[in-house]
Amino acid sequence: MISGFESIELTTLILIVVAGFAAGWVDAVVGGGGLIQLPALLLVPGITPVQALATNKMGSIFGTTTSAATYYRRVGPDLKTAVPMAVIALAGSFCGAILAASLPASVFKPIIVVALIAVAIFTALRPSAGELTALRHEGHRHYVVACLIGAVIGFYDGMIGPGTGSFLVIALVSAMGYAFLEASAKAKIVNMATNAGALIFFLPHGALMWGVGLVLGLANMAGGYLGARAAVSQGSKFVRIVFLIVVAALIIKLGLDVWNDNVAR
């Protein structure tokens, strides 16, 4: 297992740090930082896909924890909703990671691309969605819907991963009625739990590159802190714009993956 920096060139290490910072910033605002961070990790000589996934989760949990704490101080998201949702999402992520070990992600990518296109169309055609919080459910139903979202998206994060934060944000906006800013604040708490769930699965398998993961984590923390501050200061309209950009990038990336998978067959 590669755990240090013996085989990593300085330029590659710098690229990983820059990617970690950028991923932390994007993740803090709307999620989707894995699009930046994971490809950078795959440049490490001799790294396996499982090592890259595990180290990516380790770096991400630093950033999501930092941005979650920043959002909590500045936005004050409702923990009565976020905490149960996060606990369910952690369990879902662990189960998803188990399935990921035996089932190729290519099976699900076409479905994810279609879902992302639907999300982009919904967000683009409804500019007023997510401007203000207007909750759609009350009482026990509110918490049931939140936990269902946590379970489904947590499972997705453990199994595939890209766009988890974006899916959480749009689900909290469209299915629950939160404003984009408050949805992003809750999404960071839940995303922190999904990263932890996947890590719990990966740790016993010795897949983590600890040295790289710690450097990546520090860069992710810096990006996460600044991204959360930017989102809070700019508000829901800013989050919505960044959200659409990230979703478009996700559609292109996963769409190309599906195309390449079909060509290779």
What are the key terms here?
76% helix; 265 residues; mainly alpha; 10 helices; globular
What does this structure look like?
The protein is an all-alpha fold. It has one domain. 76% of the residues lie in helices and 0% in strands. The chain is built from 10 helices and no strands. It has helices at 10-29, 34-41, 49-74, 79-100, 109-125, 139-159, 164-174, 180-202, 210-234, 236-264. Helix 2 packs antiparallel against helix 3 and helix 7 (164-174) crosses helix 8 (180-202). The mean pLDDT is 85.
Q: Could you report the average pLDDT, rounded to the nearest whole number?
A: 85
Tell me the span between the first and last alpha carbons.
31 Å
Number of DSSP strand runs: 0
Helix-and-strand structural type: mainly alpha
- Portion of residues in helices? over 70%
The oligomeric status of these chains comes to single chain
How is the topology of this model organized?
Elements: H1 10-29, H2 34-41, H3 49-74, H4 79-100, H5 109-125, H6 139-159, H7 164-174, H8 180-202, H9 210-234, H10 236-264
Briefly, what is this?
By secondary structure, this protein is mainly α.
